């Protein structure tokens, strides 16, 4: 009986040591990968901002403004400046109404409020249907494209709902969610645009993405 108890004690002790070692290893790996992950995410954001904004000379990420949409959803704004002059505002926003979950966009606006371009950061829509949002809403055909539109003047909802935008064929739910994200972005742009255009800030040094490898 004593031998059994001794074996059980040793087994519990061994398992405890293994658990502690595994936890320490995971913590070390997390610290090791934290900075590369941060830099990769930073590079991804910079790339999306460049895609949706006119050419700029500042670091929009360094001037990030965190705010909330009308319903309290957090959003981030990135002012793009050319030698101190505001040339665009990129807004990162999300809709939770996608067919298969969240749709996250980066939407760029001119200082006047027109849509300059957009980039889809995250979506899990049906391949060949909702996934077509990546290009559909910037294709100059019928009323598909939202590029150049003024959300203050145009009804940024699908035509099926009385709006001015043609939905993706057979993907109305995904299209509604996409435009929901765009409208949220415009609401956030309206909140911050006045303070951005009123007082240009000193140019910040570009964010350090040295050593980051991106897969475009």
Task: Spell out the blueprint of helices and strands.
Elements: H1 2-52, E1 65-68, E2 74-82, E3 85-98, E4 101-109, E5 115-122, H2 133-136, H3 172-198
- Mean pLDDT level: 85
Q: What is the tally of beta strands?
A: 5
Principal-axis shape equals globular
User: Largest sheet at a glance?
Assistant: 5 strands, antiparallel
Q: Give the C-alpha Rg.
A: 23 Å
Structural class: alpha+beta
Proportion of strand residues? 15-25%
Distance between the termini: 65 Å
Strand order of the largest sheet: 1-2-3-4-5
What's the number of helices? 3
Task: Note the run of SSEs as H and E.
Answer: HEEEEEHH
Describe this structure in words.
The protein is of the alpha+beta class. It has a domain at 51-198. Helices cover 38% and strands 20% of the residues. It has helices at 2-52, 133-136, 172-198, and strands at 65-68, 74-82, 85-98, 101-109, 115-122. The protein has a five-stranded antiparallel beta sheet, sandwiched between helices. A hairpin with a 5-residue loop joins strand 1 (65-68) and strand 2 (74-82). The longest helix is centred in the first third of the chain and has 51 residues, at 2-52. The radius of gyration is 23 Å and the shape is globular.
């Amino acid at each position: 009986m004593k031998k059994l108890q001794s074996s059980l004690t040793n087994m519990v002790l061994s398992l405890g040591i293994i658990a502690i070692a595994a936890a320490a290893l995971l913590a070390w790996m997390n610290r090791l990968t934290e900075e590369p992950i941060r830099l990769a995410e930073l590079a991804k954001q910079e790339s999306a901002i460049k895609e949706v904004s006119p050419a700029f000379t500042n670091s929009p990420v360094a001037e990030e403004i965190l705010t909330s949409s009308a319903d309290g959803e957090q959003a981030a704004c990135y002012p793009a400046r050319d030698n101190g002059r505001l040339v665009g505002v990129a807004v990162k926003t999300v809709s939770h109404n996608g067919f298969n979950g969240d749709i996250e966009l980066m939407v760029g606006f001119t200082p006047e409020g027109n849509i300059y371009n957009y980039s889809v950061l995250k979506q899990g829509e049906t391949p060949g249907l909702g996934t077509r949002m990546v290009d559909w809403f910037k294709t100059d055909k019928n009323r598909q494209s939202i590029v150049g539109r003024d959300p203050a003047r145009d009804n940024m909802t699908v035509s099926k709902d009385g709006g001015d935008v043609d939905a993706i064929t057979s993907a109305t739910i995904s299209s509604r969610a996409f435009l929901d994200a765009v409208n949220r972005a415009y609401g956030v742009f309206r909140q911050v645009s006045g303070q951005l255009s009123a007082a240009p800030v000193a140019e910040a040094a570009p964010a350090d993405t040295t050593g980051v490898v991106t897969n475009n």
